[in-house]
Amino acid sequence: PATFVMKPDSLTCICWDFLCAAAMTHDSVMIPLLSAFEIESTGAVLGFALASSFVWLLDFIFSFFRGYINTRTGFLEMRMSHIAYRYLTGWFAPDVALLCLDGFAFLSSSATLDVQSITLLRLFRSLRLLRLVRMFGRAHLLKEHLTLDFLGAMASVYVETALSIVKHLAIIAFLCHFTGCAWYALGREETQEMGSSWITVHENMRQELGMPSDVLYMYSTALHWSLTQFTPAAMEVSATNGLERLFSVFVVLTGLIVFSFFLGS
Questions:
Q1: Among 149, 155, 222, 231, whose CB has the most other CB atoms within 10 angstroms?
Q2: Rounded to the nearest 5 degrees, what angle is found at the Cα of 240, between the Cα atoms of 209 and 219?
């Protein structure tokens, strides 16, 4: 095998997977925010977005130099020709498409676009979250490395339990984040046929009380609403038209399934 091919359980690969996990966390938080809220991609927001895209570009290159376990033979595959063939017939095309989406998103962010183009851009941004699917396999390797290599077999049971709890809490947090951003984005799509949205009703109520409705408050309100759908709680925000009501019913049913799944596991 080539000397510069990395073993999947090497320290270099583990450190790189942690960096990719950080980039994935950034994308999971910021992409729904930028898609739903009017946040300018400047300053620190733009800097972190560029850093995340650079990490994925390097990961695209490193994928040709990363060994893997052959599931048919059970042996470690370190031959570059086999690694390249596996990547070209697997995640190569999706990775190229996602990298092109990154470039298109950055080029379009500085241009003046109409409403339809902005909606399409937000959809393209959301498609970048498909990288979550690819990170699931690496997350399993990181979990094994933490429980066995770093902390030893004596502590593996306790660490695995703690990591399982953290994983479930993180999944709930991200689900509430995605749901809250989708709830706010739905409230912005107000038409005469649908009637007033929850955003209009809530902002009018706060204006009567002389209170502002900035981005931070509206995000926390949408996040609070999403939390009430996954837990037995309530708040003053509710659906005000048919589309929002259907979305609320769908979220409640999804929350019931997710809550039952976590109780069973």
A1: 222
A2: 60
Residue 153 phi, psi dihedral angles, 5° rounding: -70, -30
230 to 165, 223, 226, 253, 258: CA distances (angstroms): 17, 11, 7, 9, 8
- Are 181 and 32 within 8 A, CB to CB? yes
**91 class by beta-carbon count within 10 Å (0-12 exposed, 13-18 middle, 19+ buried):** middle
Task: Name which of 65, 56, 102, 54 is nearest 87 in CA terms.
Answer: 65
Token reading at 220: 């926390």
Q: What is the pTM of this model?
A: 0.80
CA gap 226, 181 in Å, rounded: 9
d(CA 144, CA 173): 23
Residue 160 pLDDT greater than 50, yes or no: yes
Q: What is the pLDDT of residues 220-236, one digit of tens each?
A: 999 999 999 887 778 88
Torsion over CA: 80, 82, 88, 90 (sign)? negative
Distances (CA, A) of 7 to 1, 144, 259: 11, 15, 38
Structure tokens at 32: 């729904």
Work out whether strand 68-69 and strand 76-77 pair parallel, antiparallel, or are unpaired.
Answer: antiparallel
| Cβ neighbours for 260, distance < 8 A, ≥ 6 positions apart | none
- Copy the structure tokens of residue 4: 């510069």
From CA 50, how far away is CA 255, in angstroms rounded? Answer: 34
Residue 212 identity:
P
